Amino acid sequence: MSRTVFCQHLNKELEGLAFQLYPGDVGKRIFDNISKEAWTMWQKKQTMLINEKKMNMMNPDDRAFLEQAMVSYLFEGKEPEIEGYIPPSE
């Protein structure tokens, strides 16, 4: 049985995540307010960011940077700056 959430990123009721995928308060906020669709969109951007900036997920600074980019993207609608990436036009 899937659950629906009002997705703060896409501004509509959509299928929510099955379980909390990110730890802590940020993870709870995502679980409660972000749809599966928006999370998938973020994961693609996250992969591009990690690759472009050659991030190391063992590095606390890289993790903090990524978390800030994630919160900005999901809750404030800010596109992460990815060199050479142009968002597809609708």
Task: Explain this structure.
- The chain has one domain (4-76): YggX-like.
- Helix 2 crosses helix 3 (60-76).
- With 90 residues, it is mainly alpha-helical.
- The mean pLDDT is 92.
- It has a two-stranded antiparallel ribbon.
- The relative contact order is 0.16.
- It has helices spanning 24-33, 36-52, 60-76, and strands at residues 4-7, 12-15.
- The protein contains 3 helices and 2 strands.
Which terms summarize this structure?
90 residues; mainly alpha; YggX-like; 3 helices; iron; iron ion binding
Blueprint (SSEs and pairs):
Layout: E1 4-7, E2 12-15, H1 24-33, H2 36-52, H3 60-76
Antiparallel strand pairs: 1-2
CATH superfamily: Fe(II) trafficking protein YggX
Residue stretches low in confidence (pLDDT < 50, at least 5 long) are none
CATH topology: YggX-like
Q: What is the makeup of the main sheet?
A: 2 strands, antiparallel
Architecture in CATH? Orthogonal Bundle
Work out the radius of gyration.
13 Å
Tell me, briefly, the overall form: globular
